[in-house]
C-alpha cells in the first residue's frame, strides 16, 4: 500500500509539474494581451522580432545555477529506479507503474524545456573531468 502511494504521488507530482507552468503562462498571456495585439498588427520586422524575444524572456529560467541544469530531472528518474530495485519483488505492479511514470516524466521534462522554460545556455567545460585519460 505504501509503495503504491509513492508511485501515485510521483505521477501526481508530474501532473503538478506540468500544470503549474500552464497556469502561470495563461495568466501572463492574459495580463499582456493588449500589448501583444498592438504589436502583432505592426508591419515592422524589428517589432515582430522584439515581440518574439519578449515572449521567450517571459518564460522562467530552467536552471538557477550553472550546476543545476537537468540534475533534478535525472534525480527523479534515478529515485524511481531505486524504488524498482528495492521494492520490485514485493509489489510486482510497481514495474508497470514505474514505466508509466518514467514515460510521463520524460514527456513532462520535454514540455518544460520546449514550451515553458527558457532554453539553457550551453556552457563549455574546461575539461571532461573524471573521464580524462
Automatic annotation (TrEMBL):
Residues 3-131 form the Anoctamin transmembrane domain. One of its GO terms (molecular function) is chloride channel activity. The chain crosses the membrane at residues 6-28, 81-100. It is found in: Membrane. It is a multi-pass membrane protein. GO terms for cellular component: membrane. Pfam families: Anoctamin. InterPro entries: Anoctamin (IPR007632), Anoctamin_TM (IPR049452). It comes from the Eukaryota. Keywords: Membrane, Transmembrane, Transmembrane helix. This is Anoctamin transmembrane domain-containing protein.
Amino acid at each position: 500500500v505504501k509503495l503504491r502511494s509513492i508511485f501515485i504521488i510521483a505521477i501526481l507530482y508530474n501532473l503538478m509539474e506540468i500544470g503549474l507552468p500552464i497556469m502561470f503562462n495563461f495568466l501572463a498571456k492574459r495580463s499582456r494581451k493588449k500589448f501583444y495585439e498592438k504589436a502583432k498588427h505592426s508591419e515592422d520586422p524589428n517589432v515582430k522580432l522584439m515581440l518574439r524575444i519578449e515572449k521567450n524572456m517571459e518564460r522562467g529560467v530552467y536552471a538557477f545555477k550553472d550546476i543545476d541544469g537537468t540534475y533534478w530531472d535525472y534525480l527523479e528518474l534515478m529515485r524511481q529506479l531505486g524504488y524498482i530495485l528495492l521494492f520490485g519483488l514485493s509489489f510486482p505492479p510497481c514495474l508497470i507503474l514505474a514505466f508509466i511514470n518514467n514515460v510521463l516524466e520524460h514527456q513532462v521534462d520535454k514540455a518544460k524545456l520546449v514550451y515553458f522554460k527558457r532554453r539553457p545556455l550551453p556552457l563549455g567545460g574546461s575539461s571532461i573531468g573524471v573521464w580524462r585519460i
